[in-house]
Amino acid sequence: MFSYKINDELELAVPRLTDGEALYDLIDRNRDNLSYYLPWVDHVHDVQAETDAIRRGLVRFAEGKALDLYIWYHGRLAGKVSLNSIDAMYSEADIGYFLGKEFRGLGIMTLATRAIIDIAFEEYGLHRIMLQCAVDNLPSNNVAKRLGMRFEGCHKGRLILRDGYHDSNEYAVLAEEWPDVQEKY
């Protein structure tokens, strides 16, 4: 299976069906802190549901519509980073991700997101990558800023979270900007 080694501690890999249990355990351990920004977490109830989600993701990967990569830190599943909704016509995709609480504050998500942007531009030949997050999700806003992504605006009432509609910030970077942006950040 496809994998992308970031450094000696961190690797991204296309999930295997056998990763369903590890994914379920990660989500279940982090249910309280993930579910506010990721409402789908409330619908995760067993390992089979996650195995089915992996299967659906692999189909979308084979169709060229998405790329889910699991984040492995010292051999432990730490989270997931994805190119969601790859749009071949417009040559763009949006990034989604989550990270277990015990893995936060280590720079993992910034490194994983940088890597998937590299993959998007170098392997998929995409032109534009977007990252959208709730205005009050400071860690996600900070990932975009650390990567030098351009703030493109605030969308009123764009996201529906557990307690209703929320504003979202959108960040983006173009393939031709990425090398220069990386030199600065």
Automatic annotation (TrEMBL):
InterPro entries: Acyl_CoA_acyltransferase (IPR016181), GNAT_dom (IPR000182), Ribosomal_N-acetyltransferase (IPR051908). PROSITE patterns: GNAT. Pfam families: Acetyltransf_3. It comes from the Bacteria. Residues 10-176 form the N-acetyltransferase domain. GO terms for cellular component: cytoplasm. GO terms for molecular function: protein N-terminal-serine acetyltransferase activity; protein-N-terminal-alanine acetyltransferase activity. This is GNAT family protein.
